[in-house]
Amino acid sequence: MTQALSPAELYQRLETLETRLVYQEHWLDTLDNAVAQQERRLEKLEHISALMRERLRDQHQNPSNHDSTTTLRPEDDVPPHY
């Protein structure tokens, strides 16, 4: 039960398919860029997390680090409401 399509109908169907393909390629590129950006952010966050774990481990291993000869950094200062 296949009906023969006119050249104009075939052209219209081909144009519709090409248009859909272009949109799909655009969305794939957009998604690829988003995934790549998220991967870079995740790598940064993992690096920060590793640095924080290392710093916390160092603080726990050397509790005497906070004597009078050590200079405290602003990020080490606990706000008064804690």
From TrEMBL:
Transmembrane spans: none
Report the InterPro entries cross-referenced here.
SlyX
The UniProt regions of compositional bias labelled Basic and acidic residues, in chain numbering, are 73-82
Signal peptide position in this chain?
none
| Region annotation (Disordered) ranges | 54-82
- Where is this chain compositionally biased, Polar residues type? 61-72
Q: What is this protein identified as?
A: SlyX family protein
Organism, by scientific name, is Vreelandella vilamensis
